[in-house]
Amino acid sequence: MTNSVDAQFVVDDAALVQWCETADAASHVALDTEFERQKTYFAELCLVQISALNSIICIDPLNGLDLAPLADYLSAPERTKVVHSARQDLEVMHFSGITVSDGLEDTQIAAALAGFADQIGYAELVHKLLDVTLDKSQTRTNWAQRPLTDLQLSYAADDVRYLGAAHEILIEKLDGLGRLPWLREDCTALVDIELIDPPVERAWQRVKGLTGLHDRAFSRGTALAAWRERTARERNLPRGWVVKDADLVALAMHDTQDGRALDAAISEQSALLRRSRDVIVEVLTDADRQPPPERPPVPGTAARQLAKHLAAKVRARAEELGIGAGVLMTRREMELVLCGQMPTRLVSGWRAHALQDVLADVASGAPSAP
């Protein structure tokens, strides 16, 4: 396959509007983004690449463009938006005013359902499906720099140049396997706004080491994680710049009744945290007054004895289907099942059907959460 389509670099509003009008008849578009997130909470959208109707554009949001026409173009539910490994792209676009809620088809998910590796990269997929070797020299380039080089723009354009063709092959494979409904189900779940922009109350789920704390410390840790998330958003700072995970866990372990020890712990933190001393104490003290939040279930001894049995059953069924075991059921989902809780996507949908006998077998002997 030859590189036959030149990319248009769009840097002004008129050119963007004109392209959207010209490509309005496209039923499918291939989409990708480039962004930077080194010193901020919110990623900076640096480039949007789209391929449609045998044309490719690279849109420059950093030139002050009004992205509303693009948002309208991509919001059309009848237009299929093809993206590879879409989760981060969806998040970055969402916070830039572009929401894709209908018609998404993720080629990484499609590939996994067709029997390729669970997290196969775009370059590897293109090579396997189209026998095209992509240039990887710009993988770690700085997309916020201007002007962009011809090499950068060519690399960016290649990210959508072959995406449509790869998508067509995968759709044909999945159609032959009767798995197109599987793809639609998983892609619908991917555009859930709570996955793209989770509430701050769930920020504790990102903090390593928090779930192992006793109830009071866990309560303080969840409150502190929510405060960190709000602060990071308000100041557009990385979470770790507000307070690192390890320091957050250490602060959560301090009894708020011991003011001297808590002050000493805060004094060892960043300047931002020291300046927020009164707020931190208030957050932790208020958490001590509240009932401990429900923590995620952890399999007990009896449940852990069933873990190998369940994992073996899932692996065997995945092999029958020709897909990765992690596609069928994640490790965390296994833990929940062993605790007597059924994850949402195992209650209904294609996984529930594929695992019906496996789940029934395990449920018959699965203990409840400790």
What are the salient characteristics of this protein?
370 residues; Nucleotidyltransferase, domain 5; DNA polymerase, domain 1; 3 domains; 6-stranded mixed β-sheet; 9% strand; flat
Question: What's the layout of helices and strands?
Answer:
Elements: E1 7-10, H1 13-22, E2 28-36, E3 44-52, E4 55-59, H2 68-75, E5 80-83, H3 87-94, E6 104-106, H4 107-113, H5 122-130, H6 150-161, H7 163-177, H8 180-190, H9 193-196, H10 215-235, H11 239-242, H12 245-252, H13 259-267, H14 271-275, H15 277-289, H16 301-321, H17 325-328, H18 331-338, H19 344-347, H20 350-354, H21 356-363
Parallel strand pairs: 1-4, 2-5, 5-6
Antiparallel strand pairs: 2-3, 3-4
Q: In summary, what is this structure?
A:
With 370 residues, the protein is of the alpha/beta class. Helices cover 52% and strands 9% of the residues. α10 crosses α15.
The CATH superfamily of the largest domain bears the name Ribonuclease H-like superfamily/Ribonuclease H
Rounded to an integer in angstroms, the radius of gyration calculated over CA atoms is: 24 Å
Care to count the β-strands?
Answer: 6
Sheet with the most strands: spatial strand order: 1-4-3-2-5-6
Structural class of the secondary structure composition?
alpha/beta
CATH architecture of the largest domain: 2-Layer Sandwich
**Beta-strand proportion:** 5-15%
Order of helices and strands: EHEEEHEHEHHHHHHHHHHHHHHHHHH
Shape, principal axes of CA atoms: flat
Helix content: 40-55%
Biggest beta sheet attributes: 6 strands, mixed
CATH topology of the largest domain: Nucleotidyltransferase, domain 5
- CA(first)-CA(last) distance: 57 Å
What is the average per-residue confidence, as pLDDT, rounded to a whole number? 91
Number of helices: 21
Low-pLDDT residue intervals, each spanning 5 or more residues: 366-370
CATH domain class name of the largest domain: Alpha Beta
Task: Give the count of structural domains.
Answer: 3
